From TrEMBL:
Keywords: DNA-binding, Transcription, Transcription regulation. Residues 39-58 bind DNA. Signal peptide: none annotated. PANTHER family: HTH-TYPE TRANSCRIPTIONAL REGULATOR BETI (PTHR30055:SF234), HTH-TYPE TRANSCRIPTIONAL REGULATOR RUTR (PTHR30055). Gene3D superfamilies: Tetracycline Repressor, domain 2. Residues 17-76 form the HTH tetR-type domain. This is TetR/AcrR family transcriptional regulator. It comes from the Bacteria. PROSITE patterns: HTH_TETR_2. InterPro entries: Homeodomain-like_sf, HTH-type_TetR-like_transc_reg, HTH_TetR, Tet_transcr_reg_TetR-rel_C_sf, TetR_SbtR-like_C. It holds the Pfam family TetR_N. It comes from Aureimonas flava. The keyword Oxidoreductase does not apply. One of its GO terms (molecular function) is DNA-binding transcription factor activity.
Amino acid sequence: MEPDPPKATRRPRADSARNRERLLVAAAEVFRAGDGRASLEAVARRAGVGIGTLYRHFPTREALFEAVYRREVEQLVRLAETLAVSEPPLPALRLWLREEVRLVATKRGMLAALALAVDSGSELYAFSFRNLSHAVGTLLDRCVAAGDVRGDVGPEDLLQTLVGLCLMAREPDWESNVVRLMDVFVDGMRVGAGAPPAGGTHG
């Protein structure tokens, strides 16, 4: 009996997955740059694929938005898991918050480019809030357990503060300013940071 012929390789499927990933990376970069007029053609060019390839993966602008945003959230979740075992508690929290600023920068660009809003009742909002709260909560719990920060600040407080700072910022270098302000906020969470000097008086 002759051996069965070799099965066809899965190269087309591998190429498709690779093109999809390139499109997601390119779209995040385009939107993060803050160009509200960015077109899907610009995303395809940056990814090095044709516009037809983009539409095969993402039939609508909304589909591309959601895929990019979900990918960025999932990356932040994985980053929190990595930092929790590779960095001391407080530096891990600071590093994660800086990456969260990048996510908000991407989201701001997408909202401008796609004229969309992720309202608080949407499934995408619930997905992101649930996953990001859990991720930063894990890092925050480590800080509290280590005695680095006070225990009366929750993950929702951190996320709301960061997003609020990002949405209010308008200057060109707003990302670096938000990172600086979040460092100040975290410093204020340090155990003993709010205590008056020994022997000091108020007023």
